[in-house]
Amino acid sequence: MIDTLIIPLLKIAVVLNATLVGVTYMVLLERKVIAWAQSRLGPMRVGPYGVLQPVADAIKLMIKEDITPVRADKWVFTIAPIISMVPALIVYAVIPFGETANIFGHPVNLYIAKINVGLLYVVSVASVGVYGIILAGWSSNSKYPLLASLRASAQLISYEVAVTLTLVSVIMVAGTLDLVEIVKAQEAKGLWFIFVQPVAFVLVLIGGLAETNRAPFDLPEAEQELTGGFHTEYSGMRFALFFLAEYANMIVVSSVVTTLFLGGWLAPFPTILPFLTIVPGWVWFLLKSFLFLYLFIWIRATLPRYRYDQLMRLGWKVLIPLAIANLVVTGIVRVIVLTWLKP
Amino acid sequence: MAEAVAFYVLSAFILGFAVLVVSAKNTVHSVLFLVLNFLFVAALYVLLGAEFVAVIQVLVYAGGIVVLYLFVVMLVNLKRPPEAHHDPHRRTRLGFGLAAAVLVELGAIAAYGAVTPTVPIAAPVGPMTGNTEQVGWLLYTSYLIPFEIASMLLLVAMIGAIVLAKREL
Q1: pLDDT at B121
Q2: In A, which residues are within 8 Å of B32 by CB distance?
Q3: Alpha-carbon gap, residue B42 to B54, rounded angstroms
Q4: Range of lowest pLDDT (A211-225, B4-18, B22-36)
């Protein structure tokens, strides 16, 4: 009873709450980091150094008037923000934050579910998230959101191909689709996959930026051309859901990249610096994920936006051929290692 | 018992959404019901112990192909009135013909199922353990030729699409 029902429910509650709080604080972090990059202070008024700004934002968004345009498709308009938020949250079911921890003398696995198709589950759930954006644009019955949603969905579909093809070469090295086993494979090899698959790491990182609609690939939200993007007609909490979904997706991409390439919960340099393993695994996991979140904000503060044709050219003519080449090279090396080097 | 209940509940949802797909007035709505239908079919696969097929069902059908359906439906003008020379009876006859064909097919499957003994689900095949490994093993041993033919078909379709889309090669 306690193992099959109560602990999983508690884990789900903890992960969901941690994610949602993390998402709201990501917004603050982004505003702060971008402000510092531009020699400004960022939010300073609410609480010391503006640390209570997310609370103020949440209250403001909840009590704002919620407007549905008259010509909008009411049902689809309502469910579109939900469709874009839910996939971003249910991905956390398979992400391993750590191995096993003793909580009040009870061994608890620091992941909600261990399924043997974990990585494919992440990819397929993420692919359903596109519907939120397409439907938001279509149901608004307004030209700019429609244009933005067509752009966004074309972008997401294009980069999904590149990312999924790249992930295949990681799966070939790890020999499993299970995210927990992928981390364990890195432990057994004594080498994080960023050193085994450097090309795949860069491709997944670029693809991840594009899939989360982040700068320099934030064309669906190009304010100058689209008056805001696919969520132009949304207000109040429904707009906030799109906004939060974007940040939740960023955390998902960071966690997945950490798990696949930076050894998840493993401490760095286990042979040279063995004392680092004293720090619990989930702390390492959070630190590594935070590194990528910071990188995303840093990139946004640094790079200008791509043009639409440049974006499509990069996706189809650079990333996908590179992904296929990486796949072929990985396959050849793997066959050589398995047939000749292994006795 | 629990499995049977889950099966019937899921099947009821699948059939309900299938009816909604054909009865919805708005084409975008019927595409959305199709997505829900596919998701419940994926749940049915999970119930059968075929996680790999379930995830691929979501990835390829719900996440890939139906997005393209949505594109087409959103971009094509569906408000065009029916053509004047259209024969209303032709469609009815075609519908009855298709329904009869499906009925015969279902009957044949039921008859076949009644004669042959039931196979235990998710019986391990080949030297592999795990769902994905078994699917891969079967695809590259027993079903190698169908697998290759399917990939050839996809290649031909891809080349065909390029030839159609490009005016001059």
Answers
A1: 53
A2: 76, 131, 135
A3: 4
A4: A211-225
CB-based contact (8 Å) between B154 and chain A?
A: no
Closest to A153 (Cβ–Cβ): which among B26, B29, B67? B67
Chain A closest CA to B63's CA: distance in Å? 5
Inter-helix orientation angle A74-90/B27-47, to 10°: 30
For residue A258, give both structure tokens: 């950490």
Q: How far is B120 from chain A (nearest CA, A)?
A: 21
Closest chain A CA to residue B26: A73
Instruction: Select the residue of A128, A130, A157 nearest B58 (Cβ to Cβ).
Output: A128
> Distance between CA A60 and CA A68 in Å, rounded?
18
The confidence score (pLDDT) of residue B108 equals 92
Whole-model pTM: value is 0.84
- Two structure tokens written together for B67: 């997005």
CA distances from A225 to A222, A315, B117 (A): 6, 21, 64
Residue identified by tokens 């033919």 is B149
Residue A24 identity: T
Kindly give, in sequence order, each residue whose CB lies less than 8 Å from that of residue A110, ignoring residues fewer than 6 positions away.
A96, A97, A98, A99, A100, A101, A265, A281, A282
Buried b (16+ CB within 10 A) or exposed e, B72-101: ebbeeeeeeeeeeeeeeeeeeeeeeeeeee
